[in-house]
Amino acid sequence: MSAQIGVTGLAVMGANLARNLARNGFTVALHNRSVAKTDALLEKHSGDGEFIRTETLQELVDSLEKPRRVLIMVKAGGPVDSVIDQLVPLLEPGDIVIDGGNSHFQDTRRREAALAKKDLHFVGIGVSGGEEGALNGPSIMPGGSKESYAALGPLLEKISAHVDGKPCCAWIGTDGAGHFVKMVHNGIEYADMQVIGEAFDLLRSGAGIEPAEQAKIFTEWNQTELASFLIEITAEVLGHTDARTGKPFVDVVVDAAGQKGTGRWTVISALELGSPTSGIAESVFARALSSQAAQRAEAQEKLAGHEEKIAVGEGFVDDVRQALFASKLVSYAQGLDMLTGAAKEYSWDLRLDEIAGLWRGGCIIRAELLKDITKAYSAQEEPANLLFAPAFSEAIAGALPAWRRVVATAVQLGIPVPVFSSSLAYYDGLRRKRLPAALTQGLRDLFGAHTYHRVDDDGTFHTLWGEDKSEIVAEDTH
Ligand code: NBP
User: Fold this and answer.
1) Stretch 83-97: mean pLDDT, rounded?
2) Which positions does UniProt annotate for substrate binding (predicted)?
3) 141 lines ligand 1 (CB under 6 A)
4) How far apart are CA 107 and CA 1, in angstroms?
5) 3-state helix/strand/coil string of 223-237
6) Which of 8, 72, 75, 87 maximizes ligand 1 atoms within 8 Å of its Cβ, making it the mutation to test the pocket?
7) Which three-class secondary structure string do you get for the chain?
8) What residue's CA is closest to ligand 1, atom 16?
9) Which residues pair with 208 in a beta bridge?
């Protein structure tokens, strides 16, 4: 008997993907650097399907049907290179090496190019949904060559989540496209969680609504256009009481948010692309600020607040809901806009309708909203920005008065709402006829002769600031 796919790296994600593959009828060869993990999986879960136990990479390779498919699920970074280096001499042209970890897309591009020279396919796949998703159906974002997808796609589509009968898995684009899209997905996830946190803080500190009561509000909100996995689990976390103290669970958890790095990568990448992804950036910074425990403690003693003691009105809760939706929409719009920028930069043909579609199930940001996003990008004329799609421009227009009220109230009360407010600034910036960037250009020209364009003439100009302030035609040094 030979296996249709081999999995090396059987920690939680690899083990669960291997089990998912076996449950879906595929024969799976198992390998882990230390054999103990392989045996533990077989001991507990051999009933999931057909497995082949192997102890070495040579045995793993020998157990596979051709073209071979080897899924690497080891720790991202050096370990992936190490496994590739050991695997490659054992493989034959046409075989497919798959990296399902959270690798940086530039590493994936490098690995794909190196393996292509040896006539091997290298496929970086983004896998979202955590442990539970890996076992029961994740959202899968595969990159690599289209040819490799023909051999790999059917397996991945079968084990992925399904929504309305459609798999949450589709070929994303060449080389690192899959890992890039997964990275941006994680960035949007950061923003999604941050806006929920801001809503929670506003309802608690602004309207005095306790977590248990908020759990009910979030449950109600989950019946609105906000319906999503994250809103659903927010209700669960806020409704949870700590068994030890009887206090709300959120009050006994240290308020310092961790991060594993994909949000940070998204922001670094956005900066490199010149993509205004402010919602995701503010979310990453908000986590960083939350973790500066010593400075926060000192600031409480040393920094004045001058908050205004205003009472929030009756409609505040609904205003917060609308502001949350509008800010969330902007974060998605920014993330998708970043994908458009990356597609140009890296020559990927990213289909935003398909990407939004495969985020609809299995992954952490799954949300009702994605159905409409898919629809917006399926329109004959794809919107240049998600917010331009009529359904969304109208939704934002409707939410705008509430959004402005909430941000203004938050500022008066001294409640930090970095994503609510930066998303509103992005929205206003985008639609503003004249931006102060004209002044920035003037300043840059004065101190650095960086030149400028005129609104009423073609060409590039420089003013002789240190002389008679006359204007000359200049070479473009923008
Ligand atoms: P870990 O990221 O914790 O990695 C542990 C695995 O890597 C073990 O199988 C370990 O083998 C193996 N490994 C290491 Br460490 N160094 C190795 C080396 N030099 N050579 C060979 N094997 C090596 O596992 P995970 O949490 O299952 O995650 C796997 C990937 O999936 C990661 O990239 C992660 O970021 C990504 N991911 C994780 C989640 C999640 O929710 N955990 C979600 C989505 C994606 P050993 O047993 O012999 O030490």
Assistant:
1) 98
2) 102, 128-130, 185-186, 190, 260, 287, 444, 450
3) no
4) 35
5) CCCCCEHHHHHHHHH
6) 75
7) CCECEEEECCCHHHHHHHHHHHHCCCCEEEECCCHHHHHHHHHHHHHHCCEEECCCHHHHHHCECCCCEEEECCCCCHHHHHHHHHHHHHCCCCCEEEECCCCCHHHHHHHHHHHHCCCCEEEEEEEECHHHHHHHCCEEEECCCHHHHHHHHHHHHHHCCEECCEECECCCCCCCHHHHHHHHHHHHHHHHHHHHHHHHHHHHHHCCCCHHHHHHHHHHHCCCCCCEHHHHHHHHHHCCECCCCCCEHHHHCCCCCCCCCHHHHHHHHHHHHCCCCHHHHHHHHHHHHHCCHHHHHHHHHHCCCCCCCCCCCCCHHHHHHHHHHHHHHHHHHHHHHHHHHHHHHHCCCCCHHHHHHHCCCCCCCCECHHHHHHHHHHCCCCCCCHHHCHHHHHHHHHHHHHHHHHHHHHHHHCCCCHHHHHHHHHHHHHHCCCCCHHHHHHHHHHHHCCCECCCCCCCCEEECCCCCCCEEECCCCC
8) 79
9) none
Query: Would the CB of 75 count as within 6 Å of ligand 1?
Result: yes
Nearest CA to ligand 1 atom 1: 75
ipTM rounded to 2 decimals: 0.98
Residue nearest to atom 18 of ligand 1 (CA): 79
Q: Which parts are annotated binding residues for substrate?
A: 102, 128-130, 185-186, 190, 260, 287, 444, 450
- How far is the centre of ligand 1, averaged over its atoms, from the C-alpha of 242 (Å)? 31
Distance of CA 224 to the CA centre of its chain: 23
Ligand 1 atom nearest 74 alpha carbon:
7
Residue 477 confidence (pLDDT) above 70: no
Atom of ligand 1 nearest to the CA of 128: 44
CA of 36, closest atom in ligand 1: 47
- Please indicate whether residue 182 is annotated as part of the active site: yes
**CB of residue 215 inside a 6 A radius of ligand 1:** no
pLDDT band at 471 (very low <50, low <70, confident <90, very high): very high
Distance 76 CA to ligand 1 centre (A): 7
* pLDDT above 90: residue 260: no
Q: What is d(CA 271, CA 381) in angstroms, rounded to the nearest whole number? A: 28
Ligand 1 site, residue 365, Cβ cutoff 6 A: no
Q: 141 forms bridges with which residues in the sheet?
A: 126
Of these residues, 37, 112, 157, 182, which one is catalytic?
182
Predicted confidence at residue 314, as pLDDT, reads 85
- pLDDT of 476 strictly over 80: no
**What is the number of other CB atoms lying within 10 angstroms of the CB of residue 300?**
9
C-alpha 3/C-alpha 189 separation (Å) is 35
